[in-house]
Amino acid sequence: MNEAITELIARRRRQILSHSFLYYQMNESIVSDSEFDEWSKELAELQTKHPAESDEAVYAKGFEGFDGASGYDLPYYYPEIQTIGYRILSEHKRRTNI
What's one Pfam family here (predicted)? Predict the structure, then answer.
């Protein structure tokens, strides 16, 4: 098992979940659609190429069958994901003086 791949999958999942929460629940978009699509495509490829690492990484169940097309039906309702989302939004607003 490749621990670096497992960690990359976990990081991408957290990014996708937290930004999906911001987009679908908070009506906020901090990253561009192309950046989100790039993360999603990378994650979908990683999960296909590294199924053992994918199964070991956090939120494996919620990303079963994930093809990168949308974050709408992902489990971004987890409190820890929402906390990350709020932190990202707060930092974004602080940096942009919104």
Answer: Nlig-Ia
Give the chain's length: 98
All structural domains of the chain with their residue ranges:
3-96
Instruction: For residues 12 and 7, give the distance between their C-alpha atoms in angstroms, rounded to a whole number.
Output: 9
Q: What is the 3-state secondary structure (H, E, C) of the chain?
A: CCHHHHHHHHHHHHHHHHHHHHHHHHCCCCCCHHHHHHHHHHHHHHHHHCHHHHHHCCCCHHHCCCCCCCCCCCCCCCHHHHHHHHHHHHHHHHHHCC
pLDDT in tens, 34-88: 999 999 999 999 999 999 999 999 999 999 999 999 889 999 999 999 999 999 9
Q: Which residue bears the tokens 């930092």?
A: 91
Angle between the N-to-C axes of helices 79-96 and 3-26, in degrees from 0 to 180, rounded to the nearest 10: 70
- Alpha carbons 27 and 17: distance in angstroms, whole number: 14
